[in-house]
Design brief:
This protein has about 210 residues and is of the alpha+beta class. The protein has one domain: Alpha-Beta Complex (H-NOX domain), CATH 3.90.1520.10. About 45% of the residues lie in helices and about 20% in strands. It has nine helices and eight strands. The strands form two sheets. Strands 1-5-6-8-7 form a five-stranded antiparallel β-sheet, with helices on one face. It has a three-stranded antiparallel β-sheet with strand order 3-2-4. A hairpin with a 2-residue loop joins strand 5 and strand 6. Helix 1 packs across helix 5 and helix 5 packs across helix 9. It starts with 12 loop residues before the first strand and ends with a strand. The N terminus is likely disordered.
């Protein structure tokens, strides 16, 4: 496998370019993200302490979140603030992200997984080209880009996501990306990269798979 040597390589080209017609900034996030996080927090033993960092009104709102519902960005940011207040270590955040990704994989990835399985060998790029489809299942507003850096090397960039200001949410997002990586090949390296445009609402992730 050849790892990308430069994220701004002249040989890179865009395979997905998506920007929501609703808003350049995410206005709502699918409830499944929060529900998966709640389960991860419970499994890791942090949920009761997490609740103490929420105001009663916010706690009541979050208690009514369903996986299929849409959660407004202000409410999602309250969730992120409570997560930040836990002051978890980098290792704990990583593990929490993986737990949440596993939980989301049971529903969010199921249709895409079946499609990837049907494609068989070489399905990695088929999965990456579903980025806009995955985005609209998770967010209203914002956008994403997928660039091809090599035969099995890609760069994913998300933009317009206010929750990315939160270290807590960034860890969960990375765990979600690891979940995507499992669909690309038998082995996939997933790592954070520097976004082409520096902004707290943007994140870049590279994938290299075999």
């Amino acid at each position: 496998m050849t790892l990308p040597t430069s994220l701004s390589s002249d040989t890179a080209h865009t395979v997905v370019e998506y920007m929501s017609a609703d808003s350049p900034t995410v206005t709502s996030m699918r409830g499944s993200v929060l529900v998966a996080t709640f389960h991860a927090l419970k499994e890791a033993g942090h949920f009761d302490r997490y609740l103490t960092f929420l105001t009663p009104d916010v706690r009541d709102e979050l208690a009514n979140v369903l996986a299929a519902s849409w959660v407004t960005t202000p409410l999602a940011l309250e969730h992120c603030r409570a997560g930040e207040a836990l002051s978890l270590s980098a290792r704990e955040l990583h593990d929490l992200g993986r737990l949440a990704a596993d939980r989301m994989g049971e529903s969010t990835f199921s249709t895409i997984w079946r499609g990837a399985q049907a494609m068989g060998v070489g399905s990695g790029w088929w999965v990456m080209k579903q980025a806009d489809r995955m985005w609209t299942r998770l967010y209203i507003g914002g956008g994403c880009t997928v660039r091809q850096l090599g035969p099995k090397d890609s760069l994913f960039e998300a933009r317009g996501v206010p929750m990315l200001e939160s270290r807590f949410f960034r860890a969960l997002h990375h765990g979600f990306m690891i979940g995507v990586g499992r669909l690309l090949g038998s082995t996939c390296y997933v790592k954070p990269e520097v976004s082409r445009v520096s902004h707290p609402h943007r994140v870049a992730i590279s994938f290299s798979w075999v």
